[in-house]
Design a protein that fits this description.
single chain, mainly alpha, 3 helices, rod-shaped, Cell_cycle_GpsB, cytoplasm
Length: 101
């Protein structure tokens, strides 16, 4: 998964200053309140994106482990039938973890 870079961080939004003009405009309190909500949502989105990247990496690792175990079972690298049973049981548990029940 390609990681996207963002132009502004939550801190950048929080610290942004605007030049004041002598024209009629918006109430600064309303703008600040709205920006506070955006900062909060933005930080949550960054946290969720980070968690998604971690889960994606873990998913890839588990899929590789499943494939490696399938190859071991298929090539008969287990020393006994009970070892193959243990491998098949582990594959089944990994598939449940990766793909759900």
């Amino acid at each position: 998964m390609e990681e996207m870079t963002l132009k502004y961080s939550a801190k950048d939004i929080y610290e942004k200053e605007f030049e004041r003009a002598m024209v009629r405009g918006f109430k600064p309190e309303d703008v600040d309140g709205f920006l506070d909500d955006i900062i909060s949502d933005y930080q949550k989105m960054e946290d969720m994106n980070h968690q998604l990247m971690k889960l994606t990496d873990e998913n890839k690792k588990l899929k590789k482990e499943i494939e490696d175990l399938r190859i071991r079972v298929a090539t008969g690298r287990g020393d006994s039938g009970s070892q193959n049973y243990d491998l098949l049981k582990r594959i089944s548990n990994l598939e449940k973890a990766v793909f759900g029940k």
